[in-house]
Amino acid sequence: MSLVYEMAQGCQVALQADPENPELLHRLGRLMGQLGQQDLELALVGQAIARAPAVPSYHADLGDALLRAGHVADARAAFEQSLSIDPDGGTAAAGLADVLLDMGDVAGAGALVAAGIGDCPRRGRVLARLAILDGRTAEAVDLLVGYLQTASTDATACFYLGVALQGEDMLEPAVAAYRQAVGLDPDLFEAHANLATV
User: Fold this and answer.
1) Burial class, 39, CB count within 10 angstroms (exposed 0-12 / middle 13-18 / buried 19+)
2) Are 123 and 96 in contact (CB under 8 A)?
3) Residue 1 has pLDDT above 80, yes or no
4) For 120-131, how does the pLDDT look when each residue is reduced to its tens digit (9 = 90+)?
5) How far is 31 from 45, CA to CA, in rounded Å?
6) Do 188 and 182 meet the contact criterion of CB atoms below 8 Å apart?
7) Cα distance between residue 177 and residue 158, in whole Å
8) First CA to last CA across the chain, in angstroms?
9) Residue 29 CB partners (closer than 8 Å, separation 6+)
10) What is the pTM assigned to this prediction?
11) 144 and 124 in contact (C-beta within 8 Å)?
């Protein structure tokens, strides 16, 4: 039995005693996401927000969950809501920058980073994506390796590491990065496609 599963069980027991507790709902939602239960994650984090709408981290985490589920426009709204509550929220700003990149708004993402917004570990992933788009793949490799030391289960970051390594013509490490991405998120189509190409 995994530690995450045990923690989720503990949250469920605590929620039986206090079913309206937003922090418990939020925590259980995040744990469900780690267990691959995206629908439950979205529902539980949404319930936490309904009970405590002024907590910026709840909105930022909802944005991440929506982004992983492929709901880019809704993710953008959640990150923007988080930033409207806490304009200095680095995690929400980095998430919004990721969304803008997914939507093709490179200038908007770059402006967020240039403004100093998004000063958090995830900022490294955003900077790496910008570096890849600018052809600075060696810099992207360094940024992603640093970021993955604190976020080793980020499948998307593993995918971008593969892209950067491939750009540096380091094909065997690129294959390893793509395999890691697929192992973490079997639904990450881009990682499968790039793995087949390499």
Assistant:
1) exposed
2) no
3) no
4) 888 899 999 999
5) 10
6) yes
7) 5
8) 36
9) 40, 41, 42, 43, 44, 45, 47, 48, 61, 65
10) 0.85
11) yes
